[in-house]
Design a protein that fits this description.
mainly alpha, 267 residues, 49% helix, 3-stranded antiparallel sheet, 11 helices
Length: 267
């Protein structure tokens, strides 16, 4: 089955911040979409390109699968303790959940930067196309995302080469643990060695100060010993239960054509 890349536009950090601000300011999804459209209209006057960009950024925070809703809601709960510079921790994690291509690309970049000081777009394309296929959409998405990471001030560009611009830091341990949990979800791995989790290549722009003790105290992680001295970290899977409607028959009002499912706006 062919994997969907899903990214055809540059993603600006200001657009993602607008979504987060909109979640706090608006009272419904329709109003949020209008706010995002107004934000994008300043830079993307073309309706087609604006619609594509809006779809990409809204998918990151709104188009969340049922099993990831709790992760998204916990990210929103961290907002009051999050500075404007620290928001990138939340955007990074949600982008990795929404777009496997984003996660794979950042892993490739992280591995390259662990071996050398900088890299080129061609080097990233050569590695990621082995898993995503040598097609125009994959090549274009690599270019768009690398350009996005320059806008996010994660990467710095000089003479066609890209290098790490800076490390992002936070003193909020809960945010670090949230990012590690999200990245493990995005990896779709059953478990991972604890030290490896603390050194994930796809988390290359972040300084992680969490310890094994912090991982043990995190309620969403299950840690068990493998062998003599290897700690393995697994996720505590969240079951998504179906809501069973009552069997009692009752006269009901006609339902709207497009019922709105309860979400974070209602909370």
């Amino acid at each position: 089955m062919r994997k969907t890349v899903g990214i055809s536009q540059k993603i600006k950090l200001a657009w993602l911040d607008a979504v987060l601000d909109g979640i706090v300011q608006t009272t419904g999804e329709k109003e949020l979409r209008q706010l995002v459209d107004q934000q994008l209209r300043k830079e993307l006057p073309g309706p087609e390109s604006r619609a594509k960009a809006a779809g990409i950024v809204l998918r990151i925070w709104l188009g969340v699968s049922p099993q990831h809703v709790a992760l998204r809601d916990r990210a929103l709960a961290l907002l009051p303790r999050t500075s404007s510079q620290e928001r990138i921790w939340l955007h990074w994690g949600m982008s990795a959940l929404a777009y496997p291509f984003f996660r794979d690309l950042t892993e490739v970049i992280g591995r390259l930067l662990a071996l050398q000081d900088d890299f080129t777009t061609a080097q990233v394309q050569a590695r990621i196309l082995t898993t995503w296929g040598d097609r125009a959409t994959s090549k274009e998405a690599v270019q768009k995302l690398i350009t996005s990471l320059v806008d996010w001030e994660v990467l710095r560009k000089a003479k066609g080469h890209f290098s790490l611009a800076r490390k992002n830091k936070t003193s909020v341990t809960d945010m670090q643990l949230w990012l590690l949990e999200v990245m493990l979800w995005a990896r779709a791995a059953d478990e991972i060695e604890a030290q490896q989790l603390l050194r994930l290549p796809e988390a290359f722009p972040f300084t992680l100060t969490t310890s094994i003790g912090d991982l043990r105290r995190h309620e969403e992680f299950h840690i068990h010993r493998q062998g003599l001295d290897m700690d393995m970290v697994a996720l505590r899977k969240v079951k998504v239960e179906r809501i069973v409607k009552p069997t009692r028959k009752k006269a009901k009002k006609p339902e709207p054509a497009n019922p709105v499912q309860p979400g974070f706006f209602d909370r």
